[in-house]
Amino acid sequence: MPVVEVAGGPRLGDSEFEFLRKFVYTHCGISLGEHKRQLVQGRLFRRLRALGLQQFSSYCELLQRDPQSELGELASVISTNVTSFFREVHHYDLLVAELLPRWLEDKRRNGERLRIWSAGCSTGEEPYALAMVLAEAIEEHGANGVDAKILATDLSPQALETARRGVYPLDRLGGISDAHRRRWMLRGSGEYEGLASVHPKLRELVTIQPLNLLHEWPMKGPFDAIFCRNVVIYFDQPTKQRLFRRYAELLPAGGYLFLGHSESLHGISEDFELIGRTVYRKRG
């Protein structure tokens, strides 16, 4: 395979690309095939410029010296953080119509916590959409006394920074209904013209933390539901199997796992049963 070049830029040699492939798989669980070589070249070239590095070999040396310092940035570069509010709306329909009312009633009666995990939350649209329907369900069912929280995690520091700000361009709000938009999004003016911020009540429901899904997890659960949508598309089969085994350990019998539209547990995990479109329930 010849070296890939960018006009006026450094060259990504075979040895550097092979190092990056192994590093990314070991630390992120992401498999980079040979067909991703040009994508890696182009995206990492921008990262080199940001760091003031002249060669890809220098970047590889940085990763060798201090893997953790650059891991999140590298993950951001090689993955695509595509998300939106109320993406795959049938998941939210199930929450509103069936799951949240039942959970809130059970938690109120038994004095238990309600916990939802948005794993791979990207820039925050998913957990904030979950917070909208959760806040409204708490109000509708008189469950203000229930300890209800959403954990949102991601590896990318840039994505997490956006999620923590909770400020989005108006053209990113397309998935939000007019009613939800009026209630939960605060439109900016002046220097914030063209932007909208999530309501403070949503921030109270969402805890945003960095997390590498391949590393140790500080939380012990249990979670009532885990959303891991459009995340495992980057993983190979063994990595998926390990990840879903760990998810199962944090879910009680009857707990729910929500996947992305192109993802499936078929041939990967026997811990869950399919009960709807990309909706799985942990077996009892």
Automatic annotation (TrEMBL):
User: Which CDD domains does the UniProt entry name for this protein?
Assistant: AdoMet_MTases
Please give the InterPro entries that the UniProt record associates with this protein: Bact_Chemotaxis_MeTrfase, Chemotaxis_MeTrfase_CheR, CheR_C, CheR_MeTrfase, CheR_N, CheR_N_sf, SAM-dependent_MTases_sf
- What are its E.C. numbers? 2.1.1.80
- GO MF annotation list: protein-glutamate O-methyltransferase activity
Positions binding S-adenosyl-L-methionine in this chain are: N81, T83, R87, E126, D154, N212, L213, R229, N230
Q: One Pfam family for this entry, by name?
A: CheR
- Where the record annotates domain CheR-type methyltransferase, the positions are 12-284
UniProt keywords (A-Z) are:
Methyltransferase, S-adenosyl-L-methionine, Transferase
- Keyword flag Methyltransferase: yes
Please give the catalytic activity noted in the UniProt record: L-glutamyl-[protein] + S-adenosyl-L-methionine = [protein]-L-glutamate 5-O-methyl ester + S-adenosyl-L-homocysteine
Which Gene Ontology BP annotations are present? methylation
Gene3D superfamilies recorded for this chain? Answer: Chemotaxis receptor methyltransferase CheR, N-terminal domain, Vaccinia Virus protein VP39
- Coiled coil segments of this chain: none
Give the function comment from the record. Methylation of the membrane-bound methyl-accepting chemotaxis proteins (MCP) to form gamma-glutamyl methyl ester residues in MCP.
Q: What is this protein called?
A: Chemotaxis protein methyltransferase
Q: Look up and give the organism this protein is from.
A: Rhodanobacter lindaniclasticus
